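Final report, Chapter 2: Outcomes

The project's central promise was a pipeline that accepts a single protein chain and returns its three-dimensional structure in a standardized token representation, suitable for archiving and comparison. That pipeline is now operational. To close this chapter, we reproduce one record exactly as it appears in the project archive, with the input sequence first and the structure output second.
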Amino acid sequence: MFKYGQDIGIDLGTATVIAYVKGKGIVLREPSVVAVDSNTGEVLAVGKEARRMLGRTPGNIVATRPLRDGVISNYTVTEKMLKYFINRVGGKFIFSPRIMICIPSQVTEVEKKAVIDAASQAGARRVYLIEEPIAAAIGAGLDISKPCGNMVVDIGGGTTDIAVISLGGSVVSTSLKVAGDKFDEAIVRYIKKKYNVMIGERTAEDLKINIGCVYPKIQDMEMDIRGRDLVTGLPKTITVHSSEMLEALTEPAMMVVDAVHSVLERTPPELAADISDRGIYMTGGGCLVDGLDKLLQEKTGINVMIAQDAVSCVALGTGKALDNLDILDSKKRK
């Protein structure tokens, strides 16, 4: 069945790609991982299937994440991945879809152009970009059109975007390359240093999700993991406690807190007063690390709320912004 191209909103994340189709809501949520045959350049798997291959592939198959730190690190693979997802979401069209894609707030013109080109090559009729914190604020249900300050901290897989938003635009913003992936790396380093055991990214992520914390827990939890003993070279099972996770994750968590602090320092006093009244909103999968909201609240003295459905906030916001595409188009024509 041929039909007019739909409007699609894509949260092109370092860890996950979430697609929103106008009128349908979120229709796709897949890891942004692609498995490629290095001999032929052919894409073998995308998404969940490819994620299962991470760290488990033979020499000729490479499972990679084409996005690093929120920006495109491998252009051709990103284009193939986008094409695959757009085809899966869209079906057959007479006209290609219009696509709105999220980008971190501090990306360069070159990085913006790479996203636009990749989406155009993947089959978009027209590409629009929206800053992640603005999309996150819309997705969290904040009214950003009014002249009052809202502060959003969006912690994804590759970047943390912090912005103070008023009248539909960001007044002060910063983007730092410390987010979910850096938390995983900190865990890998900690286990290697303390136990002399090497673990993979996926094991580190499981630890972070199950027992990770950045604020002392009332009850200490534990989890058994397997890795490779660096002394004997043999597999080894160790038991890790949440108190150790606190030790491992404090450093990256404090970097996020310091960045929030520096944005607050640069915020105009009227907007700072609004933020202390309304609180700080946290979105993105990275903000679900246990105790991150408590830590931020303790260090800033401002109430911190985690948005409902934090992981999908950016995609939902992009979807809601699709309603204004016709206005954007008519402005461009004028």
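Archive annotation: The mean pLDDT is 88.
This record, like all others produced under the grant, will remain available to the consortium after the project formally closes.
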